[in-house]
Each structure stands twice: as C-alpha cells, then as structure tokens.
Amino acid sequence: MPEAAVAPLGGSDSRVVETSDSAFSGTNVQEAGIDEPDIVKTDGTLMFVVTHERLYALEATATVPHVVDSIALEGWDHRLLLAGERVFVISRTDPHLLPYEEAAAERILPPSWPQTTITLIDAGDPGALHVVETLAVEGVFINARQIGSSVRVVVSSVPTGLEFTGPARQGRIGEVVATTLNRGVIRRTTVEDWLPGFVHRPVQRGDDDRSCRLRRCAPP
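Given the sequence above, the corresponding structure tokens read:
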C-alpha cells in the first residue's frame, strides 16, 4: 500500500526540548534531536496534555499546575508535537459512511473510511488556544517525526473508486475470469488513483477549503 508524508507545521521557532542541559524532560525518543508524537508535551513553562478529545494547556511552573485553557479536538487517538508556540495534533477522524441512526436501526457498526486529520493550534496566547489550519488525509496514521519545526507524517492508504469484480460463478473458471478483469482494472489506473487525497482547511485565514491528491512530501 502506498505511503505518503506531509509536513504542514507552521512557524519558524525550532525550539526543541530534548537538550542535555534542559531542566525538564521531554518524550523518550529513538534518535537525539528527532522528536516523536506523545500525549503530553512541554516547553518547560507550559504543559500540553490531550485527554477526552480535548487539548489542555497547563502552567507547569506554578506551585500547583493549573489549566490555562483547553480546546476541543476532532476525532480520537490524538498525538501531539510541539514547536515553539505551535501545537501539532494528529488524530483519527474516519468519516462514517452511514448515519449513526441508520446504522443503529440495522444493528451494525457504521462503516467508515480511514482518515487522519492534522490540526495546527496556535498557543502564542496560552489562555486563548485556537486552530490555525487543518489537513485531513485519506489513510491510517502510521507514525511521525519532528526535526526543529518540520514534521513528517506517514499514513498508509488504499486506492479508492476502483471497480473490482467478484467471481460470477463458482469454481476455478469464475476465479480466473474475475482475476483477469481485475488485473485489467489495475493496469488502467494512474498514479493519482493510488495517491491519498487531502482536504486543507485554513481556518485562521478564512480561505476556502482546498482538496487534491498528495504528490510529494511538502505542505499543500
């Protein structure tokens, strides 16, 4: 299955917490200077924690740490990265293909399609957290790495919209015919058929959403 990486984390502040002379600890990482997603991040002054579909900013230097602000997050299974005054949230946001009411009536789990949403949150004013932009990408989140203010996210996706054929009859002949037809479907595909699509939403600027297919490891 094809994998695609995106790196939409904004901001020029490349402050990294995992330094040898730091007075606080960060995420345990496999390689020094390369940060990994976690559910808690800190810059020594503020602590960012994700729980119950909300991101909380806490004053970490106070005698008794307290919540400064919080903001609701879309989806579930959230992971955080931090670069300066920007918090980078990676979430599962699989869209359901059936309304919950209809699925409940049929007593089935609503079918969904894998989707990963990347949310950039401005924490320049810790008391007023707000979303700068979001990027929804087709596929399941695999992992991410951060160097300075650059983040690379890896997702795994499958092609959509390909009309495969099942055996029209039982037995070996039906399987051979279906296999031949399906190989023809694959031969007629283009690169775009295999690349995951995305929807970029610049919330803070108020611009229109933009959707396309991922082509290279770069911001949309």
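The helical segments are 100-106, 172-187, 191-194. Try to locate this feature in the token string yourself.
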